[in-house]
Amino acid sequence: MAEEPKLEVLMARQPIYTKSQDVVAFELLFRDSEGRFVEGLKDEDATLGVLMGTYSSIFKKGSIKSVPCFLKVTDSFLLNNDVPELPRESFVLELLGHSDISPELIGRVKGLAREGYRLALADYDPRDPKFEPLLNVVHILKLDIQLLGLDNIPPLLQKLRPYQLELLADKVETQDEFRRCLEMGFGLYMGYFLNKPEPVKGKKISGNKVVLLQLLAELQRPAATAESIEQVALNDPALTYRILRVVNSAAFNLQREISSLSHAIALLGVEQIKRWVMLFLTSSDSNKPDELTRNMLVRGRFCELLAEMMGRDEPINHFIVGLLSQLDVLLDMSMDDLMAQVPLQQEMKDALLSREHSYGEMLQQIEFYERGNFDQLSSALDRPFYEVAYRHSLNWAQQIMQAMQNG
């Protein structure tokens, strides 16, 4: 892993989606080294550089783009005039509902709006009149659908209509909730609805995925040879060709063209080919959003890096567990059904089904980090290393998505 600047801040990013499930922004979840929510951007230049370079960056429609980041700001942060000179197009300042909404704060927020900052309001409670003055100032209103209750939202939206706000549905946990919010006319969505599979009864794994699973089984067989692995791959020549195209792509800076899978195995080793087989297993041939594949890649690499840093055995197996932890969502199958069809060691299956063993424990660490539950992270590793590994995984996932698209 390349040397990365260590920050005193733990940061994760949570996607904000459009109706078509494209990512248009990220909300930043962050705490400082003492476990407190960060009042400001300390060590401004380093943190800001990382935010702009990694956390706001996304591979979309064949190129790398930057999307805005939602930055939670407290009233004291705003009133102390601590707001660093942030690029206006790159950040949305998110006001928190527990702020003391004083005339002074309203004046400050109006000033920021005049300066061209985009503003969002979180934790809105329609029963509390204190929010009223802010509705004329902010651009985006975040509604916690779990707190408000889906059935109570339509009359609320009627009441909010005159303010002409962009509405963000927060804590959308299931596909059904997403569809209901869509019907109500929300423009933006946050929550873990993409992480939940909608199993289709009796569904079988599709053709080229079957070959990938056969390849995976062969790669795990102790007596396997480069030739026996190639024989399985040749059942799907198009797939073999794609793997070779990717392996030959610029991401690997190889001195000479690789002409066959057995040649690739001889040059790169079984572990690298196993990794690519897994990556192709996660590439979607359906209408799933890019963010799902991206998150699977991030999880795989993050699991592997943490395993390496903590001195665990078999980092590649941690990679596989992280990567496959959302295969049920990608294929719309229950994890139980999938595990019955996927040739993996039992320990890895147990990790995916019930978070057992070292693999399952590491996957749980990843899930804590993703959700910003930083206080639940293991103390086996210094906190800044988590952030460095996460950031590296974001960059790595981006490179892989590029390689797979060009492959």
From TrEMBL:
Transmembrane segments: none
Source species, domain of life: Bacteria
Annotated ranges, domain HD-GYP: 270-407
Pfam families in UniProt: HDOD (PF08668)
Domain HDOD: 205-390
Stored Gene3D superfamilies: EAL domain (3.20.20.450), Hypothetical protein af1432 (1.10.3210.10)
Annotated SUPFAM superfamilies: EAL domain-like (SSF141868), HD-domain/PDEase-like (SSF109604)
PANTHER family according to UniProt: CYCLIC DI-GMP PHOSPHODIESTERASE CDGJ (PTHR33525:SF4), PTHR33525
Protein name listed in UniProt: HDOD domain-containing protein
Organism: Marinobacterium alkalitolerans
